[in-house]
Amino acid sequence: VFQVSYLSTVVRKFPPEAMNLLSKYFCTMKDIKHAVNLQNRAENFAVSGSIYAKHALELPREQDRLSSLREASRIFGQGKDTIFQKACTDEYLELILEQERLRRVYGQDVTGKTSSITETIFNVLCYAAVKLREANKLLSEGEKLAKKFKVPEKRLWHTKIRAFATTDQWANMKYLAETRMKPPISFKHFATAAIKKKQSVSDVLWYVRRVTDPEERYDLFCEAKLWKRAADEAKGMDDVRKVMHVGSVCNDPAVSAMCDEYAKSFA
């Protein structure tokens, strides 16, 4: 009762500078309840909820972390201007519970403790390369997580490409590319992944041919050091500068001569 009366006096009668100073002092204590009670008494629910949420992230035990996050959510729920903070906290709580479920079902290595839904999906998709018998289930888990947490489609596709390329799941990569006539992202991202992971020329070309932008195709051919195809692409765009660029960097006498001939045709 005394503490409640004291805090009420601080909030009502002390100048803001004094309250802020007391709040800073309370925040130096190991027990956060004094700082939280002060901010709650002042109805600064954004601050008191944030104190609890930050404290939760520092706790080693999962159950303690969940308990503190639930308390942070409860505090955020008392404010009129803290709806967003409450929604974020609740979503993070859901993510932690989903991660726990995945570890119970598929093993501890399926995903680490991360606050990112994107990284959680990435980890689950990568794990499909380890747990081959459960690969289809893990891929399905990735889809369910994306739907539950409303991950934008473009971000999901980028995450899939990154996961499949990282773990050499090229069959799944190709299947993904074939699922849509007009995917939400350019095929250049598939081609770039294949080039960086040094896939065969035929595999790289399979993706590049699906790229509709000639500028992007030219850049991809250059990145893959497919110089003749890059020169042909540049000629098709009537871009003599690109043709000459290929001739200067290709280190292939035959391609250089071909570029010279192309350049003459522009004259």
**Average pLDDT reading:** 89
| Gross morphology | elongated
Order of helices and strands, N to C?
Answer: HHHHHHHHHHHHHHHH
C-alpha-based Rg, rounded: 28 Å
What is the helical fraction, as a range of percent? over 70%
Query: Total helix count?
Result: 16
Helix/strand class: mainly alpha
Number of strands: 0
The low-pLDDT segments are: none
How many angstroms separate the termini? 93 Å
What share of residues are in beta strands?
under 5%
Biggest sheet statistics = none
Give a structural overview.
With 267 residues, the chain is mainly alpha-helical. The chain is 73% helix and 0% strand. It contains 16 helices and no strands. Helix 9 (153-166) runs parallel beside helix 11, helix 11 (188-196) packs parallel to helix 13 and helix 15 runs antiparallel to helix 16.
Short description:
This protein is mainly alpha-helical and 267 residues long.
Characteristic key phrases:
267 residues, mainly alpha, 16 helices, 0% strand, elongated
